[in-house]
Amino acid sequence: MQPYKNLSGTSGVVAFEAGDDHINIEFEGKQRYRYDYTIPGKKEVETMKSLAKRSKGLATFISKNVRERFAAKLP
């Protein structure tokens, strides 16, 4: 996983890993989730990938637009 730089200083995201059709995100507390083109959808995943690369706004986007819609909880 790639560290999330947290440019705002207030994000709960600590790392991410982007694939062709998904993104895995690790939050504080070691909670890891997969979001993919099925859940929550292609548009949301591509937005999340873009925000992750910029290291700003990802946690806010998830909390406002994606919420509990994840494809899988990862070990």
Write the layout of secondary structure elements.
Elements: E1 2-3, E2 13-18, E3 22-27, E4 32-36, H1 42-54, H2 58-66, E5 72-74
Helix pairs in contact: 1-2
Protein name: KTSC domain-containing protein
Write structural notes for this entry.
The chain is an alpha+beta fold and 75 residues long. It has one domain (2-74). Strands 1-2-3-4-5 form a 5-stranded antiparallel sheet, with helices on one face. The protein has helices at 42-54, 58-66, and strands spanning 2-3, 13-18, 22-27, 32-36, 72-74. Helix 1 (42-54) runs antiparallel to helix 2 (58-66). The chain contains 2 helices and 5 strands, in the order E-E-E-E-H-H-E. The longest helix is centred in the middle third of the chain and has 13 residues, at 42-54. It is globular and about 30 Å long.
Chain oligomer state: single chain
Distance between the termini: 14 Å
Compute the number of helices: 2
For the report, how would you describe the main beta sheet? 5 strands, antiparallel
Strand order of the largest sheet: 1-2-3-4-5
How much of the sequence lies in strands comes to 25-35%
Number of strands: 5
Uncertain regions spanning at least 5 consecutive residues: none
Structural class: alpha+beta
* Shape assignment: globular
Order of helices and strands: EEEEHHE
* C-alpha-based Rg, rounded: 11 Å
Q: Look at the structure and give the mean pLDDT.
A: 95
- Residues in helices, as a percent range: 25-40%
Number of domains: 1
Protein name: KTSC domain-containing protein
